[in-house]
């Protein structure tokens, strides 16, 4: 139970931060205010789940961190409400203010971890968020057909950049840690194989197809592929968080 709760806490924090951090990839004038409200709703709900788990005895979160996270949650909630009544000019100013607040939240979340553990969480936020955000953005091409395909293409490029960092972290674990693939460690061996094959390998192969489809402006086909990528992303990153919590591995 303790391991599961810790995994879920980090998963919801990564999802919340990973969604909002990618909003600069899109122009609010093109997507409209509704898309930003949707992202704030997803990020806020995820953060609320993480905060709820932080009050359990299994997750240790400093008081001032809880205060920072609570302020972030309140900011997301207020933004969701007021964006429904403001024009785009005011909304753009609000999104810039939220970006500054998120920097403090990101710092509070990573503070206290070792360099490699903080690097793992930082990279995961962008790595995980790029595909998840792209999948949600893909739906908005039905709402706003004139929306440029550039945000989808840029999100794919960002994913590939942070995929390189992920591979570096995974390689570091395999080179430093004494990983035994014997029969006694069969469960860990299977989980490691799933983490690598369902994660970097499968998602990279699928991302090539979704990138080409996005370039052809076949956005709905690209969104379908991104759905599959998101499934593999969630599955593999939950496994990575399991090893992070249990063994301290930055996979």
Low-confidence stretches: none
Q: Tell me the fraction of residues in β-strands, as a range.
A: under 5%
Helix/strand order: HHHHHHHHH
- For the secondary structure, the number of strands is 0
Distance between the termini: 22 Å
The radius of gyration is 19 Å
Please tell me the overall pLDDT: 87
Helix content: over 70%
Query: What summary fits the major beta sheet?
Result: none
Task: Write a structural description.
The protein is mainly α and 251 residues long. The chain folds into two domains: 1-112; 114-251. Helices cover 80% and strands 0% of the residues. The chain is globular, with a radius of gyration of 19 Å. 36% of the residues are buried. The model has no long low-confidence stretch (mean pLDDT 87).
What's the structural blueprint in terms of helices and strands?
Elements: H1 2-20, H2 28-31, H3 33-54, H4 63-82, H5 88-110, H6 115-143, H7 150-176, H8 186-215, H9 219-246
């Amino acid at each position: 139970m303790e391991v599961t709760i810790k995994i879920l806490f980090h998963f919801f924090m990564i999802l919340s931060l990973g969604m909002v951090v990618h909003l600069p990839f899109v122009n609010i004038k093109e997507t409209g205010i509704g898309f930003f409200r949707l992202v704030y709703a997803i990020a806020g709900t995820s953060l609320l789940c993480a905060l709820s788990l932080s009050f359990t005895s299994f997750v240790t979160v400093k008081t001032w961190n809880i205060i920072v996270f609570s302020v972030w949650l309140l900011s997301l909630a207020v933004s969701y409400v007021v964006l429904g009544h403001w024009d785009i000019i005011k909304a753009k100013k609000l999104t810039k203010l939220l970006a500054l607040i998120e920097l403090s939240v990101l710092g509070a979340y990573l503070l206290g971890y070792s360099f490699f553990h903080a690097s793992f969480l930082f990279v995961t936020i962008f790595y995980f968020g790029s595909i998840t955000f792209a999948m949600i953005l893909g739906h908005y091409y039905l709402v706003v057909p004139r929306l440029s395909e550039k945000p989808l293409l840029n999100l794919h490029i960002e994913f590939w950049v942070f995929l390189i960092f992920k591979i570096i972290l995974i390689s570091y674990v395999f080179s430093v840690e004494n990983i035994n693939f014997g029969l006694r460690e069969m469960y860990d061996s299977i989980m490691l194989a799933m983490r690598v094959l369902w994660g970097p390998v499968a998602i990279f192969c699928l991302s090539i197809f979704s990138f080409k489809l996005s370039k052809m402006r076949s956005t709905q086909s690209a969104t379908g592929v991104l759905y599959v990528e998101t499934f593999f992303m969630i599955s593999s990153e939950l496994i990575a968080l399991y090893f992070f919590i249990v063994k301290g591995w930055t996979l």
